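Design review, sub-item: ligand-bound model
Attendees: FS, YL, KQ
YL presented the inputs for the 6-O-phosphono-beta-D-glucopyranose complex:
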Amino acid sequence: MTDPVAISGVAKAPPCTLVIFGAEGDLTHRLLMPALYNLATLSRLDDGFQVLGIDRTQASTEDWANDLTATLEGFTQDHTAEFHPDTIDAAAWGFVRQRLTYTQGDFSDPALFQTLARRLTGNALFYLAVPARLFGPLVTSLGAAGLLAEADGRFRRVLIEKPFGCDLPSAEALNAQCLAAATEDQIFRIDHFMGKEAAQNLLPFRAATPVFEALWHRDAIDHVEITAAETVGVEARGAFYEQTGALRDMVPNHLFTLLSMLAMDLPDTLTADAVRDAKSRLLGAIAPIAPADCVRGQYETGTVLGKPARAYRAEPGVAADSDTETYVALKLGIDTWRWQGVPFYIRTGKHLAARRTEMIVHFRSPARALFGEARAPTVLGLEIDPEPGGWLAIGQKAPGLGLRLASGEMRFQLDGPGPHASRDGYEGIFHGAMCGDRLLFQRADAIEAGWAAVQPILTAPPPLAIYPSGTAGPDEAASLLARQGHAWRPLA
Ligand code: BG6
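KQ shared the predicted structure:
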């Protein structure tokens, strides 16, 4: 198979130092290093690339590099990991490994930033793989030490993971704090869903396939479902999740990213700002969500994928009377000419019956029922995870005598074999940040528009419904759609 990277002429990243705050953490091990390794296998990293890991632990560069190597090699044995190559290419990992340096540092100590300022002279990316409460202070410290000054053609960029705020006021405050130390163009807010092949595919799919774009509006589309169902529970993240819940964790960020890529007006060009303008406009047009259009659920005991599962309230770090939701379903409307009156249903939850992230577009029925009672609804499924691809449910002739209607399906698949198969999405995120391509990153206005849309239900959350682990979620979520004669696509 031809390497799509080679044929698309994707540039080699310019030389830079990647400074990782939180070098010992899970994110660095599980996602960042595999992505750097993958970029090395694709020869997209410059010889002048360096990685400077910083964390509180006392360790040598050798210790850190050995630790990362062991984790990477461990993934070859773990087929449940996002990154699971058969083997690690010694040359590619060697390229990254020999560029690693570790420094012990206290993120609250100004001396750390002074040392960094003396040490770093050229291009630098500062990656904040740290708890969210440290984002603002770290950006302020970087600014105060002059580390964000872009002189002599060098770039200085900050990569910030979610959660970017926990409601509208906190997101506005964090944006203000970041923008006091750096320009908007220097802040790269990551939503890892934009790193997913299938999320990026929405632009080529829509813009290059006029048959869909011609029908992409209220006259042809009846309603849309967006689902991010997970079988995992909160695992070791109980304490974090207690303060967060499914709504904050998934909706204004990941699911609104998918929603905006699906429903925005197509940009006229592929510049980052044209795409981000279109996304922000769409998110800004979401009508305030009424608490009556929201269902919150929490998992109790049950069976997930054949194994007994404990209740959320029995998870470590979770209160015995917790009111935190592990499931949320919403009905929302978009106040634009294109989408007026089209319900968009969004749901996400943990300990559900299946792992599936998908968008389902239900087209309107034909004007006449030529085949009597028989129906073959036209439905487009856009699959994000676990397998990126999609299908179109169509009407076709039932085999055999007579002209009877049956349902058929056309399918497409996105992933091919080769190095792309074990990508975790962070390759594009790093590559974009190194090259200064902001297309995959969230602009301040989109972040705030997302929080503004969910703020009414954060302010007045509806009561919690309990659902057994391993099911499709609470019955109330089915009722939310049944009111309009709709139903969720079954999960399993
Ligand atoms: C993270 C959330 O941002 O996204 C997790 O904090 C969630 O709770 C995860 O499990 C889902 O991402 P993915 O790529 O596994 O679908």
